[in-house]
Amino acid sequence: MTASGLVGHDEIDALIMRLRLGTEASELHGSLCGYLAGGGSLRGTSVLAALQLDGEATDPSPEDQALLQRLASQCESELLDPELGFEPLLPEDDRPLTERAEAMVDWCRGFLGGFGLAGTGAHAQLSEEAQEILRDLGTVAASAFDFGNESEDEDALIEVQEFVRVAAMLLHTECAARDASTRGTLH
């Protein structure tokens, strides 16, 4: 757990190793965020079942289940944060640039997969802007980076990270608004 009490990248990485999930921490976080942003609900199901992740290990321990639930709650609250505090879960800034860039690709790949798992009903009605955001996230997810000037590369990664951060919140807002309007109100 990080100093702020939030579930951190290293904690999720250790969980993935224990459960032998065959994914990366950033990809798992991206999948969960994409699932929630796309209108998916975790009520009545576990995080691993919702994301269709099967580990090679036995069922998660109660502690691991609790950690996954804390991560899900953290993702939900950050995506809803009126202060726009959402951040993709990536390795710390002191990690090598290549590791952080690859984690960003993994996060986007996971986000798109999770978004797709949330269901296609509302997705067919996405605005043109939201559809463009999904295409742009797909471009990032399919990227391979060439590194040259470390300062310029660092700046480029920061720009991509900011785009991805805002993109996830915009998609969540659009899908949440659409879900609310399709539920209607009771009189």
Quick take:
The chain has 187 residues and is mainly α.
Can you describe what's shown?
This protein has one domain: Up-down Bundle (Four Helix Bundle (Hemerythrin (Met), subunit A)). Helix content is 61%, strand content 0%. The protein has seven helices and no strands. It starts with 8 loop residues before the first helix and ends with a helix. This is UPF0149 family protein.
Low-confidence stretches: 183-187
CATH C-level class: Mainly Alpha
User: How many angstroms separate the termini?
Assistant: 45 Å
Strand tally, please? 0
CATH topology (fold) name? Four Helix Bundle (Hemerythrin (Met), subunit A)
Order of helices and strands: HHHHHHH
**Beta-strand residue percentage:** under 5%
Q: How many helical stretches?
A: 7
What count of structural domains? Answer: 1
Structural class: mainly alpha
Principal-axes shape call = globular
What about the largest sheet?
none
State Rg: 17 Å
Helical residues, percent: 55-70%
CATH architecture: Up-down Bundle
Mean pLDDT: 85
**CATH fourth-tier homologous superfamily:** YgfB uncharacterised protein family PF03695
Family: Belongs to the UPF0149 family.
Pfam families: UPF0149 (PF03695)
InterPro entries: YgfB-like, YgfB-like_sf
Organism: Rhodanobacter ginsengisoli
